[in-house]
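Structure ticket #2291
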Amino acid sequence: MNKFAYASVALALHVAAASATEIIYTPVNPSFGGNPLNGPLLLNIANTINKYRDPALQDALNRLANKTPLERFNERLQQSILDRISGSVVSGTPQEGTFDAGSFLVTVATLADGLVVITTTEKATGATTQFQIPPL
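Resolution: structure written out below.
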């Protein structure tokens, strides 16, 4: 080989070595140090390819879809009663008495020391739960 060929090979190797850079790993997932803006995209991709459907969720959605307007009205009425009771207790002026909330009874009583006692009784089983709220 002549000097020109050696020089050409040496120059080619020198240029190739000069253009090589260090490889740096940059994670994509924000949980491992990646850009936080990638989070929603990765979640949407995962939800799109997830074929699992919770059977309990499907059953609950079916029961909800099959309720009559009267059943939905009764549930809203029960929720309204419970909202009124909880609002009166939180405001510091509890309405005392026993309230029928459909499938259970709610009893509100204020003791002499200002302690408010709320007792819920499930009509079907008779199971009770009691909450004690100290004076504000």
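Closing remark: The radius of gyration is 35 Å.
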